[in-house]
Structures
1.
Amino acid sequence: MMPLLEVEHLSIAFGGLKAVQDFNLTLAPGDLQGLIGPNGAGKTTVFNLLTGVYRPNHGTVRLEGRTLTGLRPYQVAAAGIARTFQASRLFADLSVLDNVRIGCQLRSARGLTATVFRTSSQVGAERQIRARCEQLLEIFGLADRRDELARNLPYGDQRRVEMARALATEPKVLLLDEPAAGMHPQEKLMLRELIRSVRRQFGVTILLIEHDMGVVMDICERITVLDYGVTIAAGTPQEVQNDPRVIAAYLGTPQEEEDSGKNVSGTSASSPVS
Amino acid sequence: MLSGSRASAEPTLNPPGWTVLPRNLGPLIIGLALATLLHFGIQPRAGAFPTKVMLDAGINIMLAVSLTLVNGFTGQFSIGHAGFMALGGYAAAAVTYYGSYRLWGSPDFHGGLLSWTVSQGTFHGPLLAGGDALFLLACLVGGLVAAGAGYVVGLPSLRLRGDYLAIVTLGFGEIVRVLIQASRYQLFSAEEVRATPFAKLATMLGGSLGFISLPFYTTLFWVYTLTALTLIVTYRIKQSSYGRAFLSIREDETAAEALGVHTTRYKVRAFVLAAFFAGVAGALYAHSIGSINAGELGFQKSFDLVIMVVLGGMGSISGSTLAAILLTILPEALRKVTDYANLYLPPEYALPDLRMIIYSLALILMMILRPQGLLGLHEVWDLWRRRARRGRPAPAGKGPA
Amino acid sequence: MTKLVQTLMDGLAAGGLYALVALGYTMVYGILKFINFAHSDVFVLGAWLSFTVAVHLLGLGLSSAGAGAAPWWALPAVLVSAMAACGLAGFLIERFAYRPLRNAPRLNVLITAIGVSLLLQNTGQLRVFFGPYPKRMPTLVPDVALGQIAGVRIPLVDVLVIATALLLMLALEWLIFRTKLGRAMRAVSYNTSIAALMGVNVNRVISFTFVLGSALAAAAGLLYGLKYPAGLKQPADTSWVMMGLKAFVAAVVGGIGNVRGAMLGGLLIGLLEFFGVAYFDPLYRDVYVFSLLILVLLFRPTGILGRPATEKV
């Protein structure tokens, strides 16, 4: 099967800091992959490179054979890559419905003349957008909150609005940046189900960044591990869990631990706790 | 249920063409009716002064609403809006003044019933005359010239945020003022006008003396028709996907771009649209007082407009409208009060014009106590809807994910 | 040659004034990341306060051409009182108008600053304060020449203006880069919360920054009044706003947030304006400065000495 997303030798340096070095990734249609690593490893930087927020110094990004490297974020979105953000970037003063509708307008919005003259094509397009977005909200269980301001929603709901909004752009690839951040265990269980069902229902390919090993090991089919911008491991959850380099990156080697009294930032495979 | 397939042709929800027409033209017809009522019904009965206040109010509504399009909808802080007004006014004035000379040999009034004001005496003539056509053309030209400037100002906006952009727009307003005041003297005879080529006429705008002797084409009818148009267009933009794209830029530009919004294009477009309406307002302004002077359209005027938009609620069309009306009437009322009081006060204690002091205090207090202005992003009718909904009990729980 | 020297002198004097005002803009921007629109009005306040102190407190009227009637201590006395009074004004403005908005979106603070600016301008024009008429600054410095260069008379006033401006800039340079307080100011400008964690009293540092900037603006106001005694227009006159804007442009050109940048920018703008007027067209004096602003903002928005700021996505 032709790969959907091909990332090759992606690198970027900020001044002297090599944030990401020689990053490679392949996503086949329908994949659910994970990107993990200690804080500051460069995971969000990879997302920013994929979506055009940063321009890489080296490397290419190709979606269904089409080169996306160097395109602006809105062009990448139009090509079919959508993302959510680590810190919630909802449109706070707009309603939930409006937030999602802005995702929808990528594919359906009409131009200025049609808008000002309220042509029947424009009215139809607006109705279509509204219908589609209400369906989306229905699926995410947010339909009854559609008119509430995004800022007034509880945190868990806000994260779901972000996901719904990203899906409204009808992406081929969905990048989720720490979707479980700030959630309590109950919400995290629901999140795992949500991500799986999103993949099923929307037919999107998903790449997610996560710190919660329980979530990652459970749902990801393949995991790439970054440390200081370098890929130190890639493989199935089993392989990655047992890789000594990964363990060292998260926990430190026994000598280091004694020396610095380092804090544990990762977890062992068995406990589903972040 | 949504499926994953994207290419599937979904059944269209387009309403048949003819059903859209009533809702489409309805507001425009209402606007025309209101304008007609004001011009023929109210103007003869009210005095010259109330008429002037109504004219000014309409022009200020156009200016405030157009400013809210840039400041409120896209969140770009533009504080040189009067520059667009000046450009539009001067361009329009050049068209009517020199155009009148070329067509009819004098800059006198050549309009019809719709441009006639009661103070000009009795009227004999057609509803719409050559002068009206020239005037409307002039308004369009004014709008387009200002829109062009809006494009030029919008371009730096792509690289600048917040404070920096504000300074550039302020600088723009000042550069416009200085350049206009450096223009050549105005021509006053038909032979001279006919002898001068168009390109040169465009630079003969009166310099620091201002552009005078303009025909008085602006009436309540034209002001309120064009104001209605401005309101309709702006409202339709706000309610649509186009407008939501603007709002997304105001809220979070990075997120908007990630969702496919062409932020740079929308930001420039906001400037162009806003400038267009400001230019038309400038044209109306010039032909209501018969002259235009760039010296009076500097940052003082820009700040007046910013105050209207901030007080009314940045991003609220009805808020800006209300604020514009209020802040047109208020200075006049205030002036009457101080004049009256000064009749009874000894000269050393005469009250000065307190308008700006009250404005600035109001601005400061507003920012501390209610920074979103009167209405924030909402419209007046949204508030009624919200109150109705609050009556209903909160829905219990939420559906499964 | 004469023209060159004359223009150079005028440009440097104006540049020094712009630099002093620009310092206030840049320090506040460096610490609070917003443009204090009301700053130029403190400059105006300084000029008018100097006038008021000189005329009403020290009883100095207009001196007739010739020997200065003002005692030698008049100038320093006026300078100190103007600086103190404006420092207080700056403190009050920050305390009551800006501090409540410390965490608000920057656009809101910008609007408040515009409000404060308008308030200062229009209250200043009230008859109970400075009145709505231009006045002439009394001569506090005797109108003598210190010599000649290339046929150009070098008046004491000009030398004093340039020297005072330079002295104050050097004093500020020492304060910011050689003292503990200056270190605290720089810490707050890099990262307010971390500075607080390090034990810096952020509120006090911010207040002090405003006081300092306002005092410098007051000095600039007095110096302006000395060099251009006929230029003391009423507080809401556009000429003041233009000067304030140009000083702001100087801060931006030099790199806003950067103290040395403000000094450099001020001198640059002063020289640009006067050379433009002398060698091109005096009608466009303001356009030169604004055009430079737009060029800088388009091609090097952080200014000559500024450092780029990046937004974390």
2.
Amino acid sequence: MRVSRRARLSLRGIALLYLLILLLLPVGAVFIRTFEHGFSTAWSWITTPAAVSAFWLSVVIALIAVPLNTIFGVGTALLLARSKVRGRKLLNSLIDLPFVVSPVIVGLALVLVYGQGGWFGSWLLKHGIMIIYAPAGMVIATVFVSLPFVVREVAPVLLEAGDEQEQAAATLGASSWQTFWRVTLPSIRWGVAYGVVLTTARALGEIGAVAVVSSNVAGSTLTLPLLVQQRASQIGAGQITGAYAAATELAVMSLIVLLAMTVLGPRRAR
Amino acid sequence: MSVIVLIPLAAVTVKAVSSGLGTFWSSVTNSFAVSTLEVTLGTSVLVAAISAVMGTLVAWVLVRDEFPGKRFINALIDLPFALPTIVAGLTLITLYGPNSPFGLHLAYAWAGVLVALLFVSLPFVVRSVQPVLIELDREVEEAAASLGASNLTTLRRIVLPSLRPAILSGTALAFARCMGEYGSVVLIAAKVKIASLVIFADIENGAPQAAASLSVVLLLIAVLVLFALRRWGDRGAR
Amino acid sequence: MRIDVHAVSKSFADFTALSSVTLQVPEGSLVALLGPSGSGKSTLLRIIAGLEEPDSGRVLMDGADVTAARPQDRGIGFVFQHYAAFAHMTVRENVAFGLRIRKRPKADVTARVNELLGLVGLTQWSGQHPHQLSGGQRQRMALARALAIEPRVLLLDEPFGALDASVRAELRAWLRRLHDEQGVTTVLVTHDQEEAMEVADTIAVMNGGRIEQVGSPREIYDKPASEFVMGFVGPVSRLDGKLVRPHDVTVSLIQSEDAIEAMVLRVVHLGFEVRVELELPGGEVARAQLTRGQTEELELARGDIVYVRSPLATEATQTPSAPSA
């Protein structure tokens, strides 16, 4: 279609205006508010003990959740794309579950199962294992909500590539593990990388599910997003600046993630 | 996977009906629950619809138009995916809340929720439509032109029907996201009855059965969305 | 409708697709634009259609300047190599498309669509979707769709290129019959010289963005205007610096004054015809085409020394003929 110049410019204008108002303005505003009272004030807000431990807690949880979901993701993708087990379609739909379920419901569900009075709760407590109101529960919650990303990135790549290369490897004498390591994995590496980036973003930013299972105690169960929420909800003179500072910290982390997405994105769609 | 996904969700269902079906029913049909669902559903549908239109428009501009900085803008679309929702919520009260630099004090918190949800749901439709738009066979549009169709006719009868599955599946995902959104609305919506906030409040206030009941309704809606996705999208091979 | 293309040029980035091309397409004729890939033939067709704009030059239809007109306003019918079928519509809806957007009355539309479906032999398939049809059927649907709006000129861009050889042959013959019946001015782009010779009244041979020769199939073959045309339109052999047709080469066991000595490399029996590959003194290979009888008479075998000449040579003339039909 050859679109008239006027139409093209109007469409472009509308799109850019929408994106400006929706995306750029808000983020810009946070940066401004953060440094409103000077850089050192902002810096001091993110170097308080609570803030530092919140940062590390978020990172640690991500460091556990992401590899777990990567392994699960690649395995499930292989299952979906390569094997002929029955119930594949069901599995395919179930994978999307974390996408469509509210994170708060996820938190509730975990409390009902692993918490006091829950299905496994009493057994766990008897053995001194704290899941709910403890970091362990937060890890499980994070794993749940960031589950689908790697699968959804890798499965199409596997389907697209087909298994001819793997068949060729088999005829040349490669064992299953060798085939996987030398043939399959290299072919999906960009898909895996992109999926890992998405999973990391989700894991770092998770709040809904984690808010339910957390006890909000700084130092042990307060993640960075929860810290932002806590500070923003408190009515204190500088508290809101503290919230902005922590939010900027998160925003910077997510901009790095965004950069990785932009770089890796085109490579996976070959 | 069952340990993490299925068992907990089953537990929610069980809890919802643990005090008997009667209690379950009254939990979801009392006026508070009903209005919560109304508000949440209504807002989500509205946001999904707006996102569908604007998302398709943005996708069109990104695929068919050329201008300096397009690659940057294209990367920006993923911002709501990458940014933690609580940050989004914070930015929104910055701009539209009491201390707004533009004096844009949103009199109605609900409008704030609307904007938050629009932010969060933006990438779904755009990223769903873009690849399909790129793959679109230009010759089909040329054929329509050669047969006398104006641009508008070609758009309406040829292009949009081809994009329909992508638009629908992107919108379905956006809708599901809106229904369950928590982080970006928790700071704004003190007075607005958003389901996720109500459920959270119920949990905090020691009313797990009420929370579970409302959750079951949301889960049912989520399952419906999953069915819709199965029918409309290529979820296995994007 | 008569089409006049006047000094049209077109470049893409640093590639010149057309270089001041002039061509006339008479009313009711079937003209083939023949040439290799990159010769500019598709570009020329698309400029006639209005799907591309020329950098310079004019396009006239029945004397009116349409260079700036949109495709929608030129009264054309266009058929694409890969069908460009509307995948989400049935065959019937595809064919009806042009009429429906012109808001013709329903009854008229139905009648015309039925007429065309009968013409192209797709009546039983009217309720199917394009993906349920074979390539040949899809192309016939595309033709019906283009004809439905009663175009003043039919433009076909390598319409049979994506089809199997047997389907191609069938559709070629069918297209010619259709043209004879309907009489719509038609321009066909192809790289297949056999197709052009079989179907067209007039062939315009193109190369490197220029028209090398315009003429009837017979003229192009018997009196090629350049070595390129001669080589493109039929097989050639080079004897003594001149291009000749293999079937004009005489092979003899007797030496004579104007004959060149050659050694038989290979004798290939292709049914009735026999192709003899010969090595010439300079080391080049030439081909002669003989009948079976002639070959038997000469008892040709590998390694024989023979004497070849081209007394009735169809030589490439040095003067290019004027590019008009």
